[in-house]
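If you are new to this repository, start here. Below is one unmodified record pulled from the training split, so you can see the exact layout before writing a loader.
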Amino acid sequence: MRRLAMGSLAVAWVAMLSSAAWCAPTTKPPSTTPAPKVTNYIVVEIKNTTGDIAYEGIAFPTLKERIKRAHDEFVTAEKAWDKAKADAAKAGTKFDKPKPVEGYVHRIGEDTVYKTQAEATEAANKLKEAYEKKKAEEKAKAGG
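And here is the target side for that same chain:
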């Protein structure tokens, strides 16, 4: 009796699974073309190892990469400066090259996002013009 119950239970279970497969809703096959990625652009202020400031419009996903690149440039410049200083000391020559400054990449406007690269570049150019104007005024004030 027990064997009969186990067998009928197994048959019922297989029948239930097969009927569920027939009744399951059909789905569309996955699309072969991926959905287009939406990329937002931002404006960043970049200070290089010589202390110069620049403004760029970059894609937001590349921000971390750009920060890492700025740090790597500083490390490379500092190692080269240390080597040049040591070489000058060995040669007994005067070494007056300024030490590289650590650069940075700062995002301008935490809430400001641009939909196109052109918009971000335009905003960066406006900031660059304002910065250059301010530097010229400071230079004129200091010089005269």
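Two things worth knowing about this chain: The first strand starts at residue 41 and ends at 47. The two ends are 111 Å apart (CA to CA).
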